[in-house]
Structure formats: structure tokens, C-alpha cells
């Protein structure tokens, strides 16, 4: 998307009315909280946000309204939050795209990931798995590499969109293995996954938050996982390193941001509420079922993780040549 088109799209996305309401005299929170998800419904980010939001409702005594704002590699939803009042009634899910990738993918952003947000809390980290349609003629990662090397550019791969963790995971994989696959971007993880299951596109990197059930059911076949160690939910699935592709750890991580200038007392209370929500039985069960690793901690710890990932991915993105403007 060209920068002019991006800015036009951002300008066309007004904030929900209750995001601009002033503090009630009774203290925070005195009204519903809007949780912006910068992806369509159905993907791992959306599933995690709705699961934690339900637990937060009990912790904070207010309704948490999930507001899906997809588009422009999360920049549309991110701009909506960066522009909101820092009153504690607008928060968002933030992942690798906003926190680690976009500053390297775009020549200029309409906001700063470091300066225009308050880092509130970590949520989760979950690895990405390379999956193929069951009819794809490869049962191991080495089979897959042999197949695509014999057909440079002929094998397509899906992703939830340009600049998504899934897209960049495959671009790094291509760079590490010297292969050439053609990217087919979708608007979200759910439609991309549906087309891989249906055989319209043969493969993709899929996050376990959305993909574990379809892997376990056999609707797609996983070839390798992008974690440092094997995951308990898929104990027989080798890591990329074990399968012969070194230095290729790929995972999605997520946390909660608010607009810059959020009062310290609100940040502290919201951080404590999120950390407590991550211990709720329903959240623990859902995260374990989807192979997620919880990321409780302080706002400073979440910020440190985000900046370390931005530093790690900068050279990788430059090496792959991926740009989004």
C-alpha cells in the first residue's frame, strides 16, 4: 500500500464514541473499555484477545468490547489507538507487526512504536509451524525443500497479509534455504488457513493459536515448528533447526498497549489485571490447548522484549528485501 493510500485509510477510521469519554468521577474503570484488535475475527490474535477480555471483565468489573480494525499491516488499528485519549478506555493487541516489523517495512510511519504508546503488559508467545495441504507431495521438511527447489516460483504460499509474522517467517525461511516461493497475501489468518485446508494454496506458516486444531485433526500436515524446542502439544513435530534449517526461530508474540500518556496508576492496575487474567482457568486452558506460552510481567519487561525483537528482525527484513511502501 502506498503511503498516501495508507494515510487516507487511516483518516477514514474514526474512533468509537466511547473511546473519547472522560473519566467518571468514581475512578477508573467507570465505563466499558474498547480493545482494538488490528486483525479480522478468527485468527490467533482475535482468539487470544477475546479470551483474555472475558477474564478481564471479571477483574475490572467492566465490559471489554473487542473492536476489529484490520488493514495496512496493523497500522490502521494502531493509528486509531495512538490517536485516542490516554484515559484507560482504549487498549489494543499489539504483535510483531507493530512492535518489531513495521519500522523496517515502511519508509515512514504515522506514529512511533516507542513514543506514541504506553506499554501495559505481555500476553503470549506462540511459535509458527510450516504446514502443507495433506495432498502436498512432501512428508518431511527435506521433502518440501526438494520439491520447491525443483519448481522455483511455482509453489505458492499463503499468509494473513503483507508484513504479518507468518509472511516474514516464510521470507526468512526462503532466505535461509535459498528457495523461491510466491506469496499470496490474505486479509487475516482464518481465510488463509481455509484456503490451505481447501487446497487452493499448498502451504503457509501457521500460528498454533489458530492452527493447532487443524493440525491435530489432519486437515493440514505440519512439517516443522519454528520454536527453539519442540512444543508439548505436538511432541513428534521437529523444530526447523532439527529438520536442517538453522537460525530460523519464528514466533508471534503479543501484548497490550494503550495510548501514550496513560496515567501511571491506570497502567499499574491494568497490568496487574492482565497478569491476573493470564492465570484464570479458562485462559490457561485455552492457551495450553493452542500451544501458547503466557508472557506475564511488568510493562518494562514487555517493552524490552519488543525492542529486542525489533533489533533482531531489522537485518532479516533488509536481507529479504521486503518493503510495504
Characterize this entry briefly.
Belongs to the UPF0065 (bug) family. It is built from eleven helices and ten strands.
Keywords:
325 residues, alpha/beta, D-Maltodextrin-Binding Protein, domain 2, 2 domains, ten-stranded mixed sheet, 11 helices, 40% helix, disordered N terminus, signal, BUG, Bug_dom1
Describe this structure in words.
This protein has 2 domains: 3-126 and 253-320, Bordetella uptake gene, domain 1 (D-Maltodextrin-Binding Protein, domain 2, 3-Layer(aba) Sandwich), CATH 3.40.190; 127-225, Periplasmic binding protein-like II (D-Maltodextrin-Binding Protein, domain 2), CATH 3.40.190. The protein contains 11 helices and 10 strands. It has helices spanning 3-11, 44-60, 75-82, 96-105, 141-149, 165-177, 189-198, 208-216, 264-277, 281-289, 299-320, and strands spanning 33-37, 64-68, 90-95, 117-132, 156-159, 182-185, 203-207, 221-225, 251-259, 293-294. Strands 1, 2, 3, 4, 5, 6, 7, 8, 9 and 10 form a 10-stranded mixed sheet that branches. Helix 2 (44-60) links the parallel strand 1 and strand 2. Residues 1-26 have low confidence and may be disordered.
Provide the fold topology:
Blueprint: H1 3-11, E1 33-37, H2 44-60, E2 64-68, H3 75-82, E3 90-95, H4 96-105, E4 117-132, H5 141-149, E5 156-159, H6 165-177, E6 182-185, H7 189-198, E7 203-207, H8 208-216, E8 221-225, E9 251-259, H9 264-277, H10 281-289, E10 293-294, H11 299-320
Parallel strand pairs: 1-2, 1-3, 5-6, 5-7
Antiparallel strand pairs: 3-9, 4-7, 4-8, 4-9, 4-10
Flag low-confidence runs: 1-26
Strand content: 15-25%
Output the CATH homologous superfamily of the largest domain. Bordetella uptake gene, domain 1
Global shape: globular
CATH class of the largest domain: Alpha Beta
Q: What's the mean pLDDT score? A: 89
Number of strands: 10
Based on the coordinates given, report the CATH architecture of the largest domain.
Answer: 3-Layer(aba) Sandwich
Number of domains: 2
Largest sheet: 10 strands, mixed
Q: Please estimate the helix content.
A: 40-55%
**Structural class, from secondary structure content?**
alpha/beta
Task: Give the topology string: H per helix, E per strand.
Answer: HEHEHEHEHEHEHEHEEHHEH
Number of helices: 11
Based on CA atoms alone, the radius of gyration comes out at: 19 Å
At CATH level 3, the topology of the largest domain is D-Maltodextrin-Binding Protein, domain 2
Tell me the span between the first and last alpha carbons.
Answer: 6 Å
Pfam families: TctC
Family: Belongs to the UPF0065 (bug) family.
Protein name: ABC transporter substrate-binding protein
Keywords: Signal
Amino acid at each position: 500500500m502506498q503511503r498516501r493510500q495508507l494515510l487516507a485509510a487511516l483518516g477514514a477510521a474514526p474512533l468509537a464514541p466511547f473511546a473519547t469519554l472522560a473519566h467518571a468521577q468514581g475512578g477508573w474503570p467507570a465505563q466499558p473499555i474498547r480493545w482494538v484488535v488490528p486483525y479480522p475475527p478468527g485468527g490467533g490474535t482475535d482468539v487470544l484477545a477475546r479470551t483474555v477480555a472475558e477474564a478481564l471483565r471479571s477483574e475490572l468489573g467492566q465490559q471489554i468490547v473487542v473492536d476489529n480494525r484490520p488493514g495496512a499491516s496493523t497500522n490502521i488499528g494502531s493509528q486509531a489507538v495512538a490517536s485516542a485519549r490516554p484515559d484507560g478506555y482504549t487498549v489494543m493487541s499489539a504483535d510483531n507487526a507493530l512492535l518489531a516489523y513495521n519500522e523496517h517495512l515502511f519508509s515512514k510511519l504515522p506514529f512511533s512504536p516507542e513514543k506514541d504508546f504506553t506499554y501495559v503488559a505481555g500476553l503470549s508467545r506462540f511459535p509458527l509451524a510450516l504446514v502443507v495441504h495433506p495432498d502436498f507431495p512432501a512428508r518431511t521438511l527435506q521433502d518440501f525443500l526438494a520439491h520447491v527447489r525443483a519448481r522455483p516460483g511455482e509453489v505458492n504460499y499463503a499468509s494473513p497479509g503483507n508484513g504479518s509474522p507468518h509472511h516474514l517467517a516464510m521470507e526468512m525461511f526462503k532466505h535461509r534455504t535459498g528457495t523461491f516461493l510466491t506469496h499470496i497475501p490474505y486479509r487475516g489468518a482464518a481465510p488463509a488457513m481455509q484456503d490451505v485446508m481447501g487446497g487452493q494454496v499448498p502451504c503457509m506458516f501457521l500460528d498454533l493459536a489458530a492452527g493447532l486444531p487443524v493440525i491435530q485433526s489432519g486437515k493440514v500436515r505440519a512439517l516443522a515448528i519454528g520454536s527453539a524446542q519442540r512444543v508439548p502439544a505436538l511432541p513428534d513435530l521437529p523444530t526447523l533447526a532439527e529438520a536442517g534449517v538453522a537460525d530460523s526461530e519464528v514466533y508471534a508474540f503479543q501484548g497490550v498497549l494503550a495510548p501514550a500518556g496513560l496515567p501511571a496508576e491506570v497502567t499499574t492496575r491494568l497490568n496487574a489485571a492482565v497478569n491476573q487474567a493470564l492465570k484464570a482457568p479458562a485462559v490457561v486452558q485455552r492457551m495450553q490447548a493452542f500451544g501458547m506460552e503466557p508472557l506475564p510481567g511488568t510493562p518494562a519487561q514487555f517493552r524490552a522484549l519488543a525492542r529486542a525483537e525489533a533489533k533482531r528482525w531489522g537485518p532479516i527484513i533488509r536481507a529479504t528485501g521486503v518493503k510495504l511502501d
